[in-house]
Structure formats: structure tokens, C-alpha cells
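Structure first, sequence second, as always.
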């Protein structure tokens, strides 16, 4: 290292957070064969928590547990400038119809492995070894963060309050680097 390398340390997480947008625009996608607008408790919880935190839900939809429907909806939302991030709920377990992680993996241009790891760690504290059954995941699609949460209301609350809401502005800030926004 040269003598001047320590004069300008890299920006800290706090500095990056201070530059992050305070309000972002989000699409919320519920993935379920059985939910409708009335029974979509987890999707409603996500929308409510985003609103309470000062974010805007600009799109909301329910699609069946079909990879093609999941991919089509996420791609439709991320293509324009209306959505800064997408949060999905449902389809992340190990049942045969739970195909959300596979559907999203096919369109992720980058992964946020730490999200799933931290989610399962926090879940383990609440529900024990059953946390290993969750395949919650996150990544970027066309440079925009996409978080895939379980369908359980308790899992959604955990992910939103302890992981997503504290960092979503920072994540969006980081994904925008080098892009014309």
C-alpha cells in the first residue's frame, strides 16, 4: 500500500445508508394457488409495512404457483422505471408446487445470498430446525432487487422488520451505482 492509501478510507455502511433513498417504489407479488385479494394476509402485511416505512407500493398482484407466471410478472415490473424493488411472498418451501426460487434463479442477474442465510438464521431462533425448510432468496433482476419471502405471516414479518426494511434503501442505492436512473 502506498502512503496515501489511508488518507481516504472507503465509505462506511453508514455513509452509504445516508445516501440511500428514503422512499422507494415497490411491487408486491403474492404467489399462491389459493389466495385472493381478501385472503392475501402476507401480501397485505408487506404492503402495510412498506407504507408505514414511507415506501410506495406501485404494483400488487397475485399469481399462481407457476414459474412462467412468476417470471412474466417480475419482468414486467422491473422493465420500466416505476419499480425500484420487488418483494414476493409464497412458493419458497419444499412442496412440489413451491417453485419460486427456481423461477427467479432463471432471471437473476446477481444473487444476494446473505439474505437467505440471514433469514434462515433468524428463523431458526424462532422456529428451530424447521427453518431449514425455507428457501427464501434474493437477487437482482435487470439491476433491481427482488426478495422472495415465504407465505407465512410470521416469516414475512421477520424478513420485513429485521432484514428488508432496515436495508432496502441501501440495497437500491447500491444496485443503482453505474446506472442511468
Amino acid at each position: 500500500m502506498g502512503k496515501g492509501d489511508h488518507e481516504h478510507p472507503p465509505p462506511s455502511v453508514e455513509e452509504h445508508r445516508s445516501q440511500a433513498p428514503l422512499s422507494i417504489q415497490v411491487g408486491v407479488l403474492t404467489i399462491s394457488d389459493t389466495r385472493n385479494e381478501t385472503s392475501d394476509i402476507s401480501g397485505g402485511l408487506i404492503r402495510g409495512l412498506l407504507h408505514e416505512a414511507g415506501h410506495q407500493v406501485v404494483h400488487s398482484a397475485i399469481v399462481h404457483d407457476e414459474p412462467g407466471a412468476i417470471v412474466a410478472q417480475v419482468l414486467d415490473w422491473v422493465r420500466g422505471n416505476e419499480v425500484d424493488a420487488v418483494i414476493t411472498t409464497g412458493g419458497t418451501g419444499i412442496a412440489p408446487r413451491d417453485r419460486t426460487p427456481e423461477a427467479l434463479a432463471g432471471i437473476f442477474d446477481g444473487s444476494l445470498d446473505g439474505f437467505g442465510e440471514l433469514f434462515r438464521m433468524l428463523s431458526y431462533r424462532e422456529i428451530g430446525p424447521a427453518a431449514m425448510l425455507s428457501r427464501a432468496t434474493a437477487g437482482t433482476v435487470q439491476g433491481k432487487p427482488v426478495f422472495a419471502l415465504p407465505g407465512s405471516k410470521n416469516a414475512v414479518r421477520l424478513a420485513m422488520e429485521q432484514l428488508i426494511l432496515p436495508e432496502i434503501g441501501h440495497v437500491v442505492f447500491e444496485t443503482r451505482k453505474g446506472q442511468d436512473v
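Margin note: The domain at 22-176 is CATH 3.40.980.10 (Molybdenum Cofactor Biosythetic Enzyme; Chain A).
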